[in-house]
Amino acid sequence: MDINETLSDGLKRELKVTVPAGELNDRLAARLDQLRGQVRLKGFRPGKVPTEHLRRLYGKAAMAEIVENIVAETTRTAINERGEKAAMQPEIAMTDDEAEANEILAANADLTFTVNYEVLPEFEIAEIKGIKIERPIAEVPDEEVEERLNAIGEGSRTYEAMKRKAKDGDRITIGFVGKIDGEVFDGGSDDNTQIVIGSGQFIPGFEEKLKGVKEGEEKTIEVTFPEDYPSEKLAGKPATFDVKVKEVAAPQELKLDDEFAQKLGVESLDKLKEAVRAQLESEYGSATRQRVKRQLLDALDEKHEFPLPEKLVEQEFENIWRQVMHDVEHHGRSFEDEGTTEEEARAEYRTIAERRVRLGLVLSKIGEEAKVEVGEEELQRALYEQVRRFPGQEQQVIEHYRNNPDAVQALRAPIFEEKVVDYMLELADVTDKTVSREELLADDDEDDHDHHHHHDHDH
């Protein structure tokens, strides 16, 4: 077997591999010998089928399998022996001339193919000790606990039917048929739905125009769908709704007391407040973690500069761009609305893709050097979380992960990343800072820069 490097440019490599026809023939003979003991052919005693006969029957299929195995083996060992790691699955190219291919499959001609791949870049990990991190921490205010309790209460509020005109806060049961230009449109009709006036469940103006209606009344309501409505066909369009009022019900007094807590399976109102506070603290904790992680990744990004495998960046960019275009098509957003152009957006998202790939490689190497590992138990927990999301389909979800190494890697990657972050926070110089709830939970436009995950490069 002969392996020659035909390209070495930056991170790009190309190898040309030649496997002599003699070696193909030897492998084929060994495979046919194996088959001789396994096949049962009419007119031949077991194990006594002549080689030529076997070759006629199975030669081409056996040879196709041998070529596939040789290509996979050679590619793997050649890259390993060169002390390189491929960033992604190498691309293999061989002849597409049918006559030539048949000669190879008959073991009459040498097998030649090229292997194209990019290597992972060599780089040094910057010093993590002393990276300054400010951990923002906010106390959960009592009024937010009350707000959350009231929201839970709203969900279980009772209503009583009334024979009066509807007003704010009433729950109305209606049937309706929506039309645009006099034509009924898809999804715009329902013969039994409940709306609480003032809750903002329906498009602006709809609930407002239900004030004053009574049970049994029929009314046509005219409204306009908002410009940013998710359905492109409806966004910005004027519509009419023929409404039939079936019931007007008034809200009953909401009593947040022990009895209310017990209905929710908690022994007292105090215990319910504790549970709500704990949930809010957990949400605040997640926000703190995101802010800290963001600072850490910013610092790592600043400290590392090295060439990136183009194909990895391209793949990451495609993933991001697919989501962007999905938003453009399905949510009626446009680049102009966001104050940019498609060209500028592409450049910005390419930079984000580069950042994600760079950080993925840096985190991967830090984790490797620190011997960070994801245990079986942690994987099982993550799998259990996935399974819980699909009640009734548990078995299919488990099978999906059992048969799909990439899916398992997608479970492992975020756990690995969080463990590497923990390892770095031990070394960093972290100081706590008390902030307001608003500061902690303020939207950070940059958050989407870091939904990268540790890449698995051991193909």
Task: Record the SSE blueprint.
Blueprint: E1 2-9, E2 12-19, H1 21-36, H2 51-81, E3 91-94, H3 98-105, E4 111-118, E5 132-137, H4 142-155, E6 159-162, E7 171-180, E8 183-196, E9 218-224, E10 238-251, H5 258-263, H6 269-303, H7 310-330, H8 342-369, H9 376-388, H10 394-402, H11 405-427, E11 429-434, H12 437-441
Parallel strand pairs: 5-11
Antiparallel strand pairs: 1-2, 2-4, 3-4, 6-10, 7-8, 7-10, 9-10
Protein name: Trigger factor
EC number: 5.2.1.8
GO cellular component, one term: cytoplasm
Write structural notes for this entry:
There is one protein chain. The chain is α+β, with helices and mostly antiparallel strands. It folds into three domains: 2-118, Alpha-Beta Plaits (2-Layer Sandwich), CATH 3.30.70.1050; 159-251, Chitinase A, domain 3, CATH 3.10.50.40; 262-450, Orthogonal Bundle (Trigger factor, domain 2). Helix content is 46%, strand content 19%. The chain has twelve helices and eleven strands. The chain has helices spanning 21-36, 51-81, 98-105, 142-155, 258-263, 269-303, 310-330, 342-369, 376-388, 394-402, 405-427, 437-441, and strands at residues 2-9, 12-19, 91-94, 111-118, 132-137, 159-162, 171-180, 183-196, 218-224, 238-251, 429-434. Strands 6, 7, 8, 9 and 10 form a five-stranded antiparallel beta sheet that branches. The protein has a four-stranded antiparallel beta sheet with strand order 1-2-4-3. A two-stranded parallel ribbon has the order 5-11. Helix 1 (21-36) packs across helix 2 (51-81) and helix 9 (376-388) runs antiparallel to helix 10. The longest helix is centred in the middle third of the chain and has 35 residues, at 269-303. The radius of gyration is 32 Å and the shape is extended. Residues 453-459 have low confidence and may be disordered.
